[in-house]
Amino acid sequence: MAFEKMIKNAFEESENNCRFGDTLEEIKEIQDYIKNAQKIYIPNKNGIKVKVLNQVLSEYNLHTAEILHINTNIADTSRIPALAKAYMALDQSDADLIIARGRLGIPGSGSLLIFIDNKGRILTCGTSPSHAIHQKPIEEAVYNEACEALEKIGFEK
Amino acid sequence: MAFEKMIKNAFEESENNCRFGDTLEEIKEIQDYIKNAQKIYIPNKNGIKVKVLNQVLSEYNLHTAEILHINTNIADTSRIPALAKAYMALDQSDADLIIARGRLGIPGSGSLLIFIDNKGRILTCGTSPSHAIHQKPIEEAVYNEACEALEKIGFEK
């Protein structure tokens, strides 16, 4: 079942008050999309996040990603900077899958690592508190967010 | 420093390539906003989430919230259903703070519990995998998401 049909069905359930949470079939569909994604891009100025994310993707037997060199500073004016970065990358590439990381909301709100598909739909995410709170190296924070995002939708190492 | 000034400063830093993550002052500002919030609403059809969320708010010495009875089924047509519910509640009340819970993205993507301020800006969040993955009772999932959201911005019990 393609996402389009799944989304249509889920909304019909909501509309009729008979939606009782996500189903294993829906989760499997997201997994399959991510497994089949060939063109995975990570918008980034430098390569630090990309190296860590590719390590995670390999550990879960997924295709690795490429860096998309774009300056995403402007995304920080958006209400959800991480998502704005993801959309910038989607709109400037032929990606099947974008993995973007940035601020969740206002300054202080911590970080969000988000996976979107080729239409900009949100598939999963991982989050961290601000560095000022968790004090972890950025590599460790990115690693944990990516594992959280994949395990949330049932991937296992 | 009000959020407006903090957001302006943070963007100027991003623009000038001298933003190095959230600061403790910014996090403190979010904490103060949440501590001072008097009119806290939770959009919900029934009271289950509200009871659990008020338990969490009490444990962190915050003001408790009231249920805002609105039918949020339509939010499931949105790209970020949890955020759509939050905006519905904000636009139909005089809230200082809205706490809303719903789907993160497409069906299967799990849940997002989000705190927004009186302008709709995102302050913090907590997330869970779908029930089909975590198998926890809803009360436990909501409890954990709310604690995650508060601890992420430095609140302690």
Spatial order of the strands forming the largest sheet of chain A? 2-1-3-4-5
Element-by-element helix/strand order of chain A = HHEHEHEEEHH
- Topology, number of strands of chain A: 5
- The helix-and-strand class of chain A reads alpha/beta
Could you give a short account of the major beta sheet of chain A?
5 strands, mixed
* Distance between the amino and carboxyl termini of chain A: 25 Å
**Largest Cβ-defined interface:** A-B, 52 and 52 residues
Provide the low-confidence segments of chain A as ranges. none
Number of helices of chain A: 6
Q: Rg of chain A from C-alpha positions?
A: 16 Å
Average pLDDT confidence of chain A is 95
**Quaternary structure annotation:** homodimer
> How much of the polypeptide of chain A forms β-strand, as a percent range?
15-25%
Descriptive notes:
Two copies of one chain form a homodimer. By secondary structure, chain A is of the alpha/beta class. Chain A contains six helices and five strands. The first copy, chain A, has helices at 3-15, 24-36, 48-59, 81-91, 131-134, 138-152, and strands spanning 40-44, 66-69, 97-103, 111-116, 122-128. In chain A, strands 2-1-3-4-5 form a five-stranded mixed sheet. In chain A, a hairpin with a 5-residue loop joins strand 4 and strand 5 (122-128). In chain A, helix 3 (48-59) packs parallel to helix 6. Chain A is globular, with a radius of gyration of 16 Å. The model of chain A has no long low-confidence stretch (mean pLDDT 95). The interface between A and B is large, with 52 and 52 residues.
